[in-house]
Amino acid sequence: MNGSFLFFIIYIGVFLYAIDAVFKDRENEVLVFFIFGLPIYITALSTIDLFGWGKAVPFLQFSKELLVIITLLFTIYRINRKIHFQLFDKLVLTYLLLILAFTFAPIGGASIIQKWIAAKSLTFFTQVYFIGRLIAIDKVNLSKYFQFICILSIAAGAVVLLEVLSGQHLQLHTGYADFMFRYFNQSPSGNYGLSWTFETDNGLKRFASFFSMPLEHAAATIVSVGVIAALITTDDNKVVLNNLLVVTIIATLCSIIFALSRASLISYFVVVYVYARITHRKQLIRFIHYSILSVLLIFLVYVRGDVYDFIINTVNFTNSSSLTHIIAWLEGIDAIGSNPFGLGLGTSGNVANSIGEATSGENEFFIIGVQVGFIPMLFYLFLYVYLIQLAYKTYQASIGKTKKLALALLLIKIGLIIPSLTSELESYIYISYITWFFSGYFINLISSPAILKTRS
Fold first, then answer.
1. Nearest to 255 by CA among 10, 438, 39
2. For labeling, which of 177, 313, 315, 428 is most exposed (least CB within 10 Å)?
3. Are 98 and 376 in contact (CB under 8 A)?
4. Helix, strand, or coil (residue 194)
5. For residue 198, what are the CA distances in angstroms to 21, 172, 190, 363, 364?
6. Angle, alpha carbons 361-274-432 (nearest 5°)
7. Confidence of residue 357 (pLDDT cuts 50, 70, 90)
8. Are 423 and 214 in contact (CB under 8 A)?
9. CA-to-CA dists, residue 411 to 123, 134, 349, 406, angstroms
10. Are the CB atoms for 128 and 433 separated by under 8 Å?
11. Predicted confidence (pLDDT) per residue in 212-254, tens digit
């Protein structure tokens, strides 16, 4: 067995740990699985399939949902306080019910099973949200789990550096291509035998580390940057760094550079700039301005070859990736305009891609709108914008863990706007589960007035 089997061992280990913890009244430890298990989910499953244990794959595919359902049930069972549902909670529930109604609607040509799978992909984040929303507040040590995310980021950066030094994708050794064809009907493609997402239009390699694809790897760095910002910032906006955070910053830079995702690369620096603005860091703002000017000068004078072509083709939208996005967006707008109440579940997104009948895509909002119409799409969009607004207001008015979580969520949600416009972001399960758990926990915190006045 090669070293990739270690990913399967880690996945099973953190899954069993989380299951045991939930049964022992420690539902918060589901975050250990979210942080260390979900990023390696595809790598672990493809590895086990590679070694001939394919019969275990269907159970492992359901393991993450099973853990979430068990955790949610125990969280509800152990509630020992009165829950006052907020507007955000009601919006999440309404969105869920709207999507579930479409599973019974005679719209679209997908089978009932395909509809349920599509509905799950659009709504499962709501179950994760309510774990964070209903869990006992004192069970979650925010700094602990934020530090775990830093450790994950360092591991991802280390793996990607090994990939770059060897010149080979990790996925070449994990059975990735065969697994994706067998279970997701995605044939191997591209110059490296994986898929086109592992390279740019002009052949530059994109590295995914141990994530499912380079785009998820890149978007995950946005989560890490938000967490780093929360950890380094004190209540009075001073910056306190330690060795762990310095190494994490370096690791995220390695990840964002070698994942070569335009959307996430832009978002990475947008997050840094927004952080500098809201924390009034004038020196950092000046540094960013001078850095942008310096990079532009270096690019114009020195950069040539594949990197130059990659950037220029991105700016003028002549590369195939940008054109694909534009075409998909136009398809989405046309589909929603022609069918404002949706084409039916399973007509866009990953389920539709697996059966070769996708309409639009490449945009989380359009994927929702094409399938179930403009009303659920607007609900999802409103949830997104409303959470940013709540996080900003709370950051200004609170202290302690509430302030840290508000800052992290504010930066993460702003940073994920562009990736949401260019991908099915909720299909990146690590990012989806982490952000929605902490969104629920954030609403949990601000629903308890005393929390805003403490440094707990």
1. 39
2. 315
3. yes
4. strand
5. 37, 11, 8, 19, 21
6. 40
7. low
8. no
9. 23, 24, 26, 9
10. yes
11. 999 999 999 999 999 999 999 998 888 899 999 999 999 999 9
Cα-based torsion angle of the residue sequence 322, 258, 206, 367 in order, rounded to the nearest 10 degrees: -50
Q: Which helix (H) or strand (E) holds 188?
A: none
Look at residues 105, 22, 85, 87 and name the one whose alpha carbon lies nearest to residue 390.
87
What tens digit of pLDDT does each residue of 170-208 get?
999 999 999 999 988 888 888 898 988 898 877 789 999
Radius of gyration of the chain (CA): 22
pLDDT at residue number 282: 80
Residues in the chain: 456
pLDDT at 104 > cutoff 90:
no
Which two tokens mark 197?
Answer: 């997402």
pLDDT at 262 > cutoff 80: yes
Residue pair 96/403 in contact (Cβ under 8 Å)? The answer is no
Burial of 286 (C-beta count, 10 Å sphere; 0-12/13-18/19+): exposed
Measured between alpha carbons, how far is 330 from 360 in angstroms, rounded to an integer?
Answer: 8
The position carrying tokens 């799978």 is: 117
CB atoms within 10 A of CB 9: 11
DSSP letter assigned to residue 316: T
* CA proximity to 278, closest of 364, 391, 189: 391
